[in-house]
């Protein structure tokens, strides 16, 4: 892409040519012969241990042009992504969002579990805090579902997402002590080195959290207003979700994660 967009003096890229080149990508007119190259990755490894050379951390590096466009989309669409993901996720577009969630959760938990015996007797602990670390979440994201979400919610971005993830991504890496170049195909999930990978995973997770939240709120409303749960703290929102084991079944029907 540098060769196609460079100026005559071989210094900086020609902005007009670069803009035309990006326009081909964003309008689904990118040359078919280059599509596999655009979505490809180079896999390198970083040592995790100073004493054990076999402990490696793989890092994927995408095409510079792809990272450049993804970074621009991430900056330009940050408010759009934020409005789509809130109020279920605060890691994208919300200033200090992760810090807010962690501190709020910690404060609420400490306040609840450090009450005096009198308060505990009148309002016994009926809540459960569940913290999950999803294994290989980026790799577990379903691409077909992701493309469907983008096509329905962000149609202007669909050609770019389609170019990036419609086909299997080629991952190049050096194999063995001889360091011979080899490759593998990644058919699902988000590739490393893509600045939009975080949004991909968040968008998939959003489609799980939204109906799950609705289902849990309906159950909480039923317990509060029809079963007259006397242990409900009557604060509204998620705090009404008194922990019943029955609620756990709501997460089972979602196989993607």
Provide the fold topology.
Elements: H1 2-5, H2 15-26, H3 35-38, E1 41-47, E2 56-62, H4 64-76, H5 78-85, H6 97-113, H7 117-122, H8 137-140, H9 143-153, H10 158-165, E3 169-175, E4 180-186, H11 197-225
Parallel strand pairs: 1-3
Antiparallel strand pairs: 1-2, 3-4
Helix pairs in contact: 9-10
Keywords:
257 residues; alpha+beta; four-stranded mixed β-sheet; 11 helices; 45% helix; globular; disordered C terminus
Question: How would you explain this protein's 3D organization?
Answer:
This protein has helices at residues 2-5, 15-26, 35-38, 64-76, 78-85, 97-113, 117-122, 137-140, 143-153, 158-165, 197-225, and strands spanning 41-47, 56-62, 169-175, 180-186. With 257 residues, it is of the alpha+beta class. A four-stranded mixed sheet has the order 2-1-3-4. Strand 3 and strand 4 (180-186) form a beta hairpin. Helix 9 packs antiparallel against helix 10. Mean pLDDT is 76; it is low at 233-257.
How would you summarize what this structure contains?
Helices cover 45% and strands 11% of the residues. It has 257 residues and is α+β, with helices and mostly antiparallel strands.
Looking at how many chains there are and whether they match, the oligomeric state comes to single chain
User: Biggest sheet, open or closed, and with what strands and sense?
Assistant: 4 strands, mixed
The shape, in one word, is globular
How big a fraction of the residues is strand?
Answer: 5-15%
Q: What is the average per-residue confidence, as pLDDT, rounded to a whole number? A: 76
Structural class of the secondary structure composition? alpha+beta
Gap between N and C termini: 36 Å
How many whole angstroms does the radius of gyration measure? 24 Å
- The count of β-strands is 4
Percent range of helical residues? 40-55%
Order of strands in the sheet with the most strands? 2-1-3-4
């Amino acid at each position: 892409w540098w060769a196609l967009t460079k100026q005559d003096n071989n210094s900086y890229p020609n902005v007009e040519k670069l803009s035309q080149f990006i326009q081909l990508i964003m309008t689904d007119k990118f040359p078919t012969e280059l599509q596999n190259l655009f979505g490809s990755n180079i896999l390198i490894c970083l040592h995790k241990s100073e004493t054990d050379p076999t402990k490696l951390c793989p890092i994927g590096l995408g095409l510079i042009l792809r990272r450049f466009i993804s970074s621009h989309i991430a900056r330009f669409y940050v408010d759009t992504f934020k409005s789509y993901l809130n109020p279920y996720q605060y890691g994208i577009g919300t200033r200090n969002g992760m810090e807010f969630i962690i501190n709020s959760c910690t404060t609420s938990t400490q306040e609840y579990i450090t009450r005096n015996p009198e308060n505990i007797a009148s309002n016994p602990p009926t809540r459960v805090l569940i913290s999950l670390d999803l294994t290989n979440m980026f790799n577990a994201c379903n691409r077909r579902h992701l493309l469907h979400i983008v096509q329905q919610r962000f149609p202007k971005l669909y050609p770019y997402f389609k170019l990036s993830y419609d086909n299997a991504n080629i991952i190049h890496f050096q194999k063995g002590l001889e360091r011979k170049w080899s490759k593998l195909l990644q058919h699902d999930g988000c590739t490393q080195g893509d600045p939009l990978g975080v949004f991909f995973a968040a968008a998939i997770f959003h489609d799980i959290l939204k109906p799950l939240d609705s289902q849990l709120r309906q159950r909480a409303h039923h317990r509060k207003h029809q079963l007259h749960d006397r242990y409900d703290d009557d604060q509204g929102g998620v705090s009404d979700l008194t922990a019943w084991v029955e609620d756990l079944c709501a997460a089972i029907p979602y196989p993607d994660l």
